[in-house]
Amino acid sequence: MKKIYSFIAIASIAACYVVSCSSPNSYIVTGKDTTGRCPDGEWAYLAIQKNGSGDIQYIDSVKIKNNEFCFEGKIEQPTIASVRTRAYNDSLRFDKPIIVHRFILENGRIQTAFNNDIHTPVGTTLNLKIVAFFNGIFSLLEKAESEGCSEEEILDLGFEYTRKQIADNADNEFGVFVADYMAHEFGPTNQLELYALLPHKQEYFAEQIEEAKQATRFEIGNQYSDVTEPTANGKEISLKSIVEKEGNKFVLLEFWASWCGPCMNEMPNLKATYNKFHQKGFEVYASSLDANKKDWENAIKKIEMEWINVSGLKVNNSPAPKEYYISAIPANFLIDCSTGKIVAKGLRGAALEEKLAELLK
Length: 361
What we know:
Helix content is 34%, strand content 26%. With 361 residues, it is of the alpha+beta class. The protein has three domains: 17-121, Immunoglobulin-like, CATH 2.60.40.10; 131-218, no CATH class; 228-359, Glutaredoxin.
């Protein structure tokens, strides 16, 4: 559950950056950047989210001055929103504004701070719930990990915590925020259960619900689906040809990208596991969600990935991630070559090694 650990850690409440007070019928959103990622003169954009697919509507923009910005206005109903900027992540400047902070826009005073990826929206009831939610789930999962719980047990704890928060807040935008942010951390069956807790938001999450329904095709015990993608030199290789290759007993369909930090952090573990079990019949068919061929090739060379590497170079619109409805990475599926069935999914680190040790005795 990489998002959970990277999203938030509770820090000191941000200072108040403007002296005026908002009325009950208006909002003031202030923010301060202490990282240097959003330099003076850049524009900060305020956007509201139109649906669970991430479609947005820009409603305001201001120039950053003294590393601060302030939005003022009115809104009829609370809604999921984001502050975006073109400049972010050290010296990079993106062509399109990207999210630097998400929160719930509601009338009242909302304070945000960008400080080493610690995001703390405070000042209104629903945003304080966001802070409390991530503080709670972070503590829960950290405690479970320290007690030696398995990844599956930790995931189950996270799901139950998330489910209860949505159920208890199904009548307000905080419940929608949690479902929007957390659903993709879980399998498609669990995703559908979470979305079902918000009957009035079925149209809002329509695309996600349809994707989850389709993705249930790839639950454990179901047959894999064949896909074909090119290698870096342009040779088309099908997943079927690897699954049916003589000597292969189990194939890991791995989804990753060079720009994905958690993916790259996991690669040394995968490489060690591959080296240990490859001669016993273990193979990897790694489909990259990269768009830049050079970045993809450099990552393969850096990690010395000796398995099958393919990519359509179209992010999640490439054949393999599109077929398997991949919306978050890293993700993987372990396929039994003798039956063509998926026997495990989402295996990381020790979990993958332990599963293969069990299967390839």
